[in-house]
Amino acid sequence: MLGNNNEANQQINRMQAATNNADRNRWRKLGGKNRNFAALIALIIICGIWTVAAHVVAKPFIFPYFEDVVKEVIYSLSDMYVLRNLGITMRRVMTGALYAFIIGLPLGMIMGYSPKILRALSPFMNSLRQVPIMAWVPLAIVWFGIGDGPTIFLIAFSGVFTIILNTISGVQDISKDFYNAARSMGANTLNIIKDIVLPGSLPGVMTGVRLAIGLGWMSVI
Fold first, then answer.
1. Is residue 51 in some structural domain?
2. CATH number for the domain including 109?
3. Among 32, 63, 110, 189, which one is least packed by beta carbons within 10 Å?
């Protein structure tokens, strides 16, 4: 028993040290000598090439001038009609992404944690996510009528599989040492899911949510 406790304590210490090192590395990337000035320089170069190339082509309808685009963006941000419609679109996208999160998170957690459930549900998930999103448009209109319903359904449907897949990946990336340490300390399945699976899979979950919101914008378009 004493040997098991010592081994569990060693595993916990190793996990804590690895977590602290990872946090410090992520913090360093936010500032100091690792600031990404290259991206800013690349953006300035792209804008310069755009400006020169547009004036060389001299056909604004085909290749608009950079300065004209900037003016229109500034004007649009002050136009209440544009802002109102942007708010409507944002509401639809965020609502659809929320539904995708509510459905996708528990499914991804269960499928990532249990290989048996993963094998049982994978054929259905893979079959559904292969169907083009536009094929669901007629059914969405029949089911939800005209209005926000079909749009929100399509946004949720396009994002739910992304959240499921990234959540599964996040759960499966958790080190087995965490599970072994928790079980050696007497943790039950509910505690393991609450204290290990949920926090450990957050990077994958956040990636899935981000991609789901991006797919939501594409669905609106």
1. no
2. 1.10.3720.10
3. 32
Q: 108: Cβ–Cβ under 8 A, 6 or more apart, which residues?
A: 163, 164, 165, 166, 167, 168, 170, 171, 201, 205, 208
146 assigned to some structural domain: yes
Residue 50 banded pLDDT, cuts 50, 70, 90: very high
Structural domains in the chain (count): 1
Both structure tokens of 125: 């998930």
Task: Using a cut of 0.70, tell me whether the model's pTM lies above it.
Answer: no
Domain that holds residue 103: 86-221
